[in-house]
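Running this now, will post back.
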Amino acid sequence: MTVLIIMGLVMKCFYRLSLLLISFLIISCSDSLKEKGSAEYIASVKKWHNTRLENLKKENGWLNLIGLYWLKEGENKFGSDKSNDFIFPENSEKFMGSFFLKDSVIILTVNQGVNIKAKNSVVEKMEMQYDLQGNPTILEYKSLRWFIIKRGEKYGVRLRDLNAELVKSFSGIETFPINEDWKIEAQFEKYNPPKEIQIPNILGTIEKELSPGAIIFTKDSKEFKLGVTDAGDSYFVIFADLTNGVDTYGAGRFLSVEKPDSSGKIYIDFNKAYNPPCAFTKYATCPLPPKQNHLKLEVTAGEKNFEGGAH
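Update: finished.
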């Protein structure tokens, strides 16, 4: 009887200790998920993120891509019939027309009776402008939109569906808790003259771009450097870090950094780190982080991996 009483007391103590441990873990996890920073700053990051989500759902966003077809020299037929070079969705015409590629010039011809439009005008035959020319020709058929892109020496047809399933099901992107500690005052190291850097892409090729300089920042008493490209009013950064492939997209993230203010200060805000288009669709052609932008640092800020996207 005495042994049973002792065992009962031991079990009771163990149960209470277990409850205390669980409570401690819940409180600790809860504390780790708390946002940190001024109310004004947190609100500004949330506003930025909400705007980004809305932009992803727009006609020129990344959620509605449903196809990418690379042109070969000569004729490239398209339509829903499986005998075409480019097979469009079933709700389109079986044989819609052809793209003719010759000496970097792309001519579209539309089959008789197919109602394809460009700028609200029905098209029969026209020369196509591609994206790098600044004003690509956008073709329309029902909810479909398509245009020409150029990557290296290759030309492709990028196809959108404004009624794509991902647009309808999209409910947002998980992020790390906003933490103002990840908005870091940095220094800008200007390159004079600008340096040529090599930026690989998802297609396996390398693009050469000019870099005006690098952002140097300190985190956890260690110094880090990120090379940038010029994006007009801001600098563009493609970086990799130790969260990639675990909490964040495996091929790195993007970041826009405002240029130095009138006092010469520059801030890098990792709470605004965002996923490249390839995190959402396999039909994007994303640049990858250059070798010098691989950080030996866990950047626990900004967007996490998008679970409903391409992997």
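The chain has two domains: 65-163, 173-293. More later if anyone needs it.
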